[in-house]
Amino acid sequence: MDVEPEALRQLAHRQALILWRTRLEEEKNVRQRAVGAILPNLEAWLSRKSGSVTFRLTQVLTGHGCFGEYLCRIGREATPKCHHCGGDRDTAQHTLEECPAWDQERHLLISHVGRDLSPAAVIAAMLAEDRAWKAVVSFCETVLVKKEAAERDRERANPARRRQRPTVLEIEPTALDSKSRIGADCARRQFKKIERKKKKTDSLDY
Ligand SMILES: [Zn+2]
Question: pLDDT by residue (tens digit) across 104-127?
Fold first, then answer.
């Protein structure tokens, strides 16, 4: 029986997605900030017609970026404190939801996204309305540009604290920005990457 290539392609794509979702649902992956927030809306996230994933949006979604807690974890800051308000822990969620330094930007964000700034609510709002997506991207760009500039100033003031750039993201933009790439090949690459990481972890795990 002849099967249309397009039908085969769609079947492979669907199977890859199911496998990908299964992998993402593993407990260690769900604990990741972005995975936990996107999983309930995975299909909507992947099939969205618009909405690009920028580097700075990825930083806020994953928590891996210019945040005191992350910089402290990778050895580039002595403490996880927030340099912008003096708070104990500068995280992506602190930046998005709490830090008074970004009240003005947050006011604009809330007018498009609503008051609930939990990762899951933000993702749902982004998927529901294009203006919400743009408002989140705009918040991330505006605020992270300022945080990065402040970090560069701190590095200049104390070059010894420069150790390594936080370039390794557990979830890279390409994994989130699957709008144009989510073919079976993209999913397959993602599995291979997870497998490689798993083997590395397993080999250390004895
Ligand atoms: Zn703060």
Answer: 999 999 999 999 999 989 999 999
Identify residues whose C-beta is under 5 A from ligand 1, the ion.
82, 84-85, 87, 99
Distance 103 CA to ligand 1 centre (A): 10
Question: Of the candidates 193, 166, 171, 163, which has an alpha carbon nearest to the alpha carbon of residue 67?
Answer: 166
3-class secondary-structure state, position 164:
coil
Angle at 43 between CA 38 and CA 44, to 5 degrees: 80
- 33 Cβ contact partners less than 8 Å away, ≥ 6 residues apart: 61, 62, 63, 92, 93, 119
pTM above 0.85, yes or no: no
**N-to-C CA span, the chain:** 51
Round to whole Å and give the CA distance between 182 and 191. Answer: 13
85 alpha carbon to ligand 1 midpoint, in Å? 4
Residues 6+ apart with CB under 8 A from 122: 37, 96, 113, 116, 136
Q: What is the pLDDT of residues 31-88, one digit of tens each?
A: 777 777 887 788 888 888 888 888 999 899 989 899 999 999 988 889 999 999 999 9
Place of tokens 């947050």: 106
The Å distance, Cα 101 to ligand 1 centre, comes to 6
CA–centroid distance, residue 162 to ligand 1 (Å): 22
Rounded to 5 degrees, what angle do the CA atoms 91, 97, 103 make? 115
How far is the centre of ligand 1, averaged over its atoms, from the C-alpha of 152 (Å)?
A: 17
